[in-house]
C-alpha cells in the first residue's frame, strides 16, 4: 500500500501497528507510522539533559534518539519500497490500458471500414432497388425488409460506436487519473528523498559529533602526554634556574665582599690622603715661614731646599694616592654596576622561577583534572559495558623473602597507555602481560586503596547494590586489604573505612532531609556451612563436627595465619527523604575469600586438608560461574557451592562489582600469581549488565541484598 495525504497534511501509513514516536518498540513488535509533524519534530528535536556533566544520561539520551532516527529512516525506506511497488504497478496498469485503448482504436477503425463498405454496398443496393422499384413490386417488400435490417444494423453500429466512445473516454479519464496519481507518488517520493537526505545528514552530523568527542578524548590524552613532558621539562628548567640562582647568590656574596673591601680601602686611602694633605699644608706653611726668614738668614738655604724636596716628594706621593683613589673609585663603580646587573639578573631569574612554579602548578592541576576526567569516563564506560571491574594489588616482600634484583618476577610498564594499569609477570623466561582497571604497587597505602573505591561506597548510599571481594592465594594480603591491622589507624582496611564514610555521609545528608537505616550481617562459609558470626546462640551455629564457629584461621606451610573460611560482610542501607518522599535501597557487600593453595605446597593434613579441599572446590565453582558468564551461557551454575549461591545477586544481577586480585612478589609463588592474574583477566571480561538504582519499595534478593 502507498501513503495518503489526509486533510491535516499528515503522511499516513496504511499498515497497522502504529506506535508512539518516542517509543523504540516499533523495531521489535511491529510497524510504526509517522506524520509530517512527527518527522519535523524529530528533525528539530533538541536532546535535553538534566546535567551537562552526566555523561551516562547524555549517552542514554543520544542512543535513544539515534534509535528513533533509525526507526524513522527504516519507516521511510519501507514506505519508499511500497511507493516504488505501487508506481511499478500503476505503470503496468497504464501500459495495459494503453494497449487496450490501442486495440480498441484498431478495432474501431476496422468497424468503421466495414461499416463504410456496408453503407457503400447498401447505397448501391438502394439505387438498384429504386430503379427496379417500379418494375418489381414484389421485390419492394424485400428491399423494404433489407432497409429495415440496414437501419437496425446502423443503429447497432451507432450504439457500438457510442459505447466504444464512452469506454474510450473512461479509459482516458483513468489514464489521466493514473498520471495524476503517478505525479503525486513522484512528488511524495521526492519529498521522502529530501527527508531521507536530511535524516542522513543529521545522522552524519551526530556521527561527526561522536567522532569529534572521540577525537577530543584522544587530544586530551595527547595533551596529557604533552603536559607530562612539559612538566618534566619545567622541572629540569626549574632545577637549572635554581642552580643558576645559587651560583648568582654565591657570586653576589663575593662581589659584596669585594665591594666592602674596596670601600674599606677607599676609606683608608682617604684618611691617608687627608694626613698627606695636612702634612703638605704644614710643610708649605713651614716653607713660607722659612722663605720669609730666608731673606734674613741665608744660613737656612740648605734646610729650605731639603724641605722643598721633601714637599715635592710628598706631592708625588699625594698624586699617587689620588691616582689610587681614582682607580679604587672606578673599581667601586664597576663593582656597583656588576652588583646592579647581578641583582637585576637575580630578580629576573626569581620572576622566571615564580612563573615556572605557576606554570608547573597549573600543569599539575590540569594533569590531575585530566586524570580525574579519564577515571570518570573510564568508570562510565565500564558501567555502560556492565563489566566486573578488577583492581590488582601486589603486597610488599616480607622479612626473609628473596629481595634481590635477579629474583624479581614482577614489573610495571611505564608506557602512557599502561601506566598505573599494567603488570608484567616473568615465568621461566617468558613475560606475561596483563592490564586491569588499576594496579597498586607494593608501597601503596591503605588510604590510596580506599580513595579508588570510595565512589563505589557512595553508590550504595545512592541506592545501588555494590559488591567488593578480594581473591588470591593464601598469604597474598587479602585480609589485610579488607580488614587492615588492628590498633594502627593508618593501616585500617576497606571495611572500617567504608563504615566511617557511610556514617559521615549519613550525618551530612541529614540537613537535606535524608534519613538512613542500616542493617549489618557478618557471615562465614566454613566447609560449605554458612555461619552467622553475630548470632548470640553459639550452640545453634555449632557445626556438626563440633568445631566452634569462632575458629576462623589455621596454620599451613604457606601461611601461619591462613583464613580457612570465606568472610562476608553485608551492610543493607534504606534511605528516605521526607521532603521528596523518595526512598532508596542499597547494599554494600565486602567479601574476604579464603586463599587458594596447592596441597603440595601447603602440606595440609587432617582438618586442614578438608578445609583446603572445601576452599578449592568453592573457588573452582566460582571459576565455573565466571566462565559461564563470559561465554553468555543460558545456564550459570550458581548453586554448585554455597559461595556462588551467596554471590549470585552480585555476579548475575544489576550490581556494581569490583574484584581485588591480591598477589605476592615472592619468586616461589610465581605459578600461583600467574593463575590468579589469568583468572582476574577473565573476570574483567565478564559483562553482568548495567547496574540500576533501587528506588522502589519492591523486595530485593534475600541473600546479599535487602529482603
UniProtKB/TrEMBL annotation:
GO molecular function, one term: microtubule binding
Residue ranges of the region described as Disordered: 1-29
Cellular component, GO annotation: microtubule
Residue positions binding ATP: 472-479
Keywords: ATP-binding, Coiled coil, Microtubule, Motor protein, Nucleotide-binding
Protein name as catalogued: Kinesin-like protein
Lineage of the organism: Eukaryota, Viridiplantae, Streptophyta, Embryophyta, Tracheophyta
Family as reported in the entry's similarity comment: Belongs to the TRAFAC class myosin-kinesin ATPase superfamily. Kinesin family.
Superkingdom of source: Eukaryota
Record-linked InterPro entries: Kinesin-like_fam, Kinesin_motor_CS, Kinesin_motor_dom, Kinesin_motor_dom_sf, P-loop_NTPase, Vik1/Cik1_MT-bd
Residues forming coiled coils: 252-373
BP GO terms, sorted: microtubule-based movement
Domain Kinesin motor intervals: 387-686
PANTHER family for this protein: KINESIN-LIKE PROTEIN, KINESIN-LIKE PROTEIN KLP-3
Keyword Coiled coil: yes
